[in-house]
Amino acid sequence: MHHCLVCHGHARYFYQDKKRSYFNCTACGFICSDPNTHLPQSVFKQRLGNEKMKLQAKHATFISTVITEFQKQQAQCLRILNYGYPLDGDLMDKIIGFGHLFFQFNPFDEVDSKMLKQKYDVIINYRVLEHFANPKRDWLLQSRLLKQGGWVIVETQLLNDPAAFNSWHFINDATRISFYQAQTLNYLAELCELSEVFNNGTLIVLKKN
């Protein structure tokens, strides 16, 4: 029997493609690829790093847009954490130029970091949720790092129609191992004491209660 990595409920066999099998939780809707079919860690990190390097400019633009929106609402200096693959030096300098305190934590390389001993106003997850091998741990960690009234900003893709999973392009990347539905997000938000403010299936905005 497979247990859900999010709620520890029963995860039933769901789908098999040429390379991986997938399991779907009957309670929270979370779908994961079979851990036995995951890439070796060294290969996973190399492929993920190569892919995220291609997205550096888009990643920086996303963070810049988030900061700009916050600046429209409030003037104070924010403590912002980029939770996921880090921006390189030049792009990071541009973000710092906004005048806020900007930090980065890479959950795929770092285990113990001084970044985990601080609290943040905003935590940004840019195309990273789908790579979590232990999503419940990462969500709870972010909840602990977030100040009361703080924000979690997510860029990802939620699965809208489980019946179309086999034709969903999002599963073609073998570094993507965790897949969320709206009900999964609702479960995690409640677990982490977050309220959903906005969700269009790609951009998700959550606030700490």
From TrEMBL:
Protein name according to UniProt: Methyltransferase domain-containing protein
Pfam families: Methyltransf_23
Species assigned in the record: Parashewanella spongiae
InterPro entries: SAM-dependent_MTases_sf
Molecular function via GO: methyltransferase activity
UniProt keyword list: Methyltransferase, Transferase
Methyltransferase as UniProt keyword: yes
Gene3D superfamilies: Vaccinia Virus protein VP39
GO BP: any one term: methylation
Superkingdom, taxonomy of origin: Bacteria
